Amino acid sequence: MKNRCLIDIKDFSKEEIDDLIKVANDIIAHRDKYSHKCDGKILATLFFEPSTRTRLSFESAMLRLGGKVLGFSESSSSSTSKGETLGDTIRVVGGYSDIIAMRHPKEGAPTVALKKTIVPIINAGDGGHNHPTQTLTDLFTIYREKKSFDNLTIGLCGDLKFGRTVHSLITAMMRYKNIKFVLISPKELKLPDYMKEILDEKKIKYVETTNIEEHMNQLDILYMTRVQRERFFNEEDYLRLKDYYILTKKKLKNAKDNLIIMHPLPRVTEIAQEVDDDKRAKYFEQAYNGVYIRMALILKLLEVK
Ligand code: CP
Fold first, then answer.
1. 168 lines ligand 1 (CB under 6 A)
2. Distance in angstroms (rounded) separating the CA atoms of residues 273 and 247
3. End-to-end CA distance of the chain
4. Is 266 a pocket residue for ligand 1 (Cβ < 6 Å)?
5. 107-150: pLDDT as tens digits
């Protein structure tokens, strides 16, 4: 029988996300209890695009559960470089492992992959489309800081066009009550129309602005993002837009005391290092949280009690 996969954050209900958060919190409180839960299991990490956090936190998660890991971190070191199709790679690796986390530059690649194996497939980022496990990390961080997902004004700043973490986070957060989005981007990097149509259909409040300070005093969350150089068609456009937003202490002067500043990382120049000391900066905690929520996800997909 085909196992459960995570391709899009909508694959999990709000209740299932609550359960994952409960398990992740329990793992933090009682680490030893989980250290042999995946004895004998193998996670494959197939990364056709670069990664630090997602790949290594998945590997750390499986190792901390007592399992083992195998995989590759760039397509040039796999037989993709000899012309092997994604389908064939997945079909073979499905026989070497119990669960696969994959990142691929092509949007929709994980949907192709899941048809080729019975082992659970986890989308660890597909092009500029989705990044659901980053969203689980983001939701876990929001819950730990705010204790609720309702009644939040969320500023999303930077590359809202190509930023897959933004697309997945909006998709997740629009399911909660009284959510408002402040979409802060240069005109060239606005949220895609198809996403705004969904917000309109669901009557979710949002405003678009190019000015990071305009709504700063209303925000409960400020989610900064990097301009996604790898998705640009020409370097000139990237160079023109890459430093459009640089969050500094001065720009935070009207922000709430209980604002949380998030970023999926890697950061380039969009958050000045002076902000790292601000108690509201949560992006490194966010990266640490990724291990525990991914441990909870692996347990769920492998149906480990
Ligand atoms: N946040 C994130 O996906 O980081 P990596 O690209 O380093 O995995």
1. no
2. 9
3. 19
4. yes
5. 999 999 999 999 999 999 999 899 999 999 999 999 999 999 99
| Spatial CA neighbour of 215 closest among 229, 205, 227, 225 | 205
What's residue 240's pLDDT? 84
261 touches 280 (CB < 8 A): yes
Q: For residue 110, give the H/E element and its range.
A: helix 109-114
pTM to 2 decimal places? 0.95
Find out whether the beta carbon of 166 lies less than 6 Å from any atom of ligand 1. no
Q: Whose CA is nearest to atom 1 of ligand 1?
A: 264
Domains along the chain with CATH numbers: 9-130+290-301 (3.40.50.1370), 133-287 (3.40.50.1370)
pLDDT tens-digit series, residues 25-42: 999 999 999 999 999 999
Q: Please, what is the Cα angle at 49 between 302 and 132, to 5 degrees?
A: 45
